[in-house]
Specification:
By secondary structure, this protein is an alpha+beta fold. It has four helices and three strands; from the N terminus they run E-E-H-E-H-H-H. A three-stranded antiparallel β-sheet has the order 2-1-3, with helices on both faces. Helix 3 (73-80) runs antiparallel to helix 4 (84-91). The longest helix is centred in the middle third of the chain and has 12 residues, at 58-69.
């Protein structure tokens, strides 16, 4: 059975990078070696793997990756730290123009 992975890297500058692969060890090595000068992580090395989720289905993995790519760095760190209470707080809308906003 083929496995797929969604992962989050913590870059040396504190930013996060989210990716998808079918070989997590190879992909992490590629990030560390800086194989592509145009990649997000090239000037942000070294990177640290802080989260990795395994999937049996590529489409589910791609869906999850696209979903968390849109998250803030704080929300990604909460996921990586398994701080689900903070994750819930960060997921709540705090925008005053949102219809659910009640100060």
């Amino acid at each position: 059975m083929k496995l797929y992975y969604v992962y989050i890297l913590l870059c040396s500058d504190g930013l996060t990078y989210t990716g998808f692969t079918n070989n997590i060890s190879r992909r992490l090595e590629e990030h560390q070696q800086g194989r592509s000068k145009s990649s997000f992580t090239y000037k942000r090395r070294p990177v640290e793997l802080i989260f990795c989720q395994e999937f049996n289905d590529a489409e589910q993995a791609i869906y999850f990756e696209k979903k968390i790519k849109k998250w803030s760095g704080k929300k990604k760190l909460a996921l990586a730290n398994e701080d689900f209470d903070l994750l819930q707080i960060l997921a709540e809308c705090r925008n005053s123009t949102h219809s659910d906003f009640k100060p």
